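Morning. Coffee machine broken again, so started the prediction first thing and wrote up yesterday's gels while waiting. Chain of 58 residues, entered below exactly as on the submission form.
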Amino acid sequence: MSIKEYIQQTKENLLKMELKSKSFVIMVISIILLSMIFTPLIGIPAGLFIGSYVQSNS
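Came back before lunch.
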């Protein structure tokens, strides 16, 4: 799988995510924590990838 396909799959997982799901809550918490530890430029994309990963594995 190429990087472009992986990013496209991540985008589709994020668009399918429901607001009150467990993966959405995990994504928001990870974005906040990573943005506090690192800069928001690193925390927000990393949190989105974590949310997509949790969504695809559940």
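The two ends are 20 Å apart (CA to CA). Going to sketch it on the whiteboard this afternoon.
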